[in-house]
Amino acid sequence: MRIGNTRDADGVLTALFSNAARLAPGASPQYCPESRTPVWHTDSTYRASPPIGSVLYCRRAPPEGAATCFADARGAYEALEECQRQELDGLECIPRRMRRCATTAAAAWGRQVHSYSPDYPLPTEEQRRANPPRRVPVVLRHPVTGMRALYGVNSSTCAVVPRGEVPQERLDELELSPAEDESVHRILRRELLPFATSERFTVVWQWEAGDLVVWDNRCTMHAATGFDHHRHEREMWRTTIIDRAWRV
């Protein structure tokens, strides 16, 4: 996948462009509940077989801005109090995937995303049907190391529920609702995300052409930051690593 704001001779975008909020030089990448930025996430948690990692290569970088922030989700989990770890071990997240369908809720969600990234594509009906709403653990045990890390703690999470069965009708209702469930605000936005993205667990990578970063999606969160895309170009190449046998 090509990520950035490059365009062809006709002015058509040749990359996937998301107009993320800018991060001032030297500023903390810690999640802010009021502005809901940076948009910290783990890639594609809505999939039955999410990617196990990604490779990101920088072809062109602007002179300032467009850094990528990374957070150690394993270190953040280990730093929690034992009572907090026990509580989170019993919870699951319902990730929201932006849907294209004829419902008021979905239309509202689409408008919210496109308000800051109008060129960002909506999923097709086929993609939506292939990825129905599902539950993912707040805490994931790594299949190789056996160590636990925060997972599913996404800016796009629409609800946090006790571990166990949730009727499909309820999953659909939560995912399609334009309103965020109170559980997300209480558990993730006000508590967990600010803690897990504090400076002790994060690094801000300021890209230069030729840089290559590889991360494990099962124990790392990341967030893009913006730049002056009217004056400068950015071009990144991303390869997603898939293990078809792995399931959350």
From TrEMBL:
The keyword Oxidoreductase applies. Residues 33-240 form the TauD/TfdA-like domain. It comes from the Eukaryota. The keyword Lyase does not apply. Keywords: Dioxygenase, Iron, Metal-binding, Oxidoreductase. Belongs to the TfdA dioxygenase family. This is TauD/TfdA-like domain-containing protein.
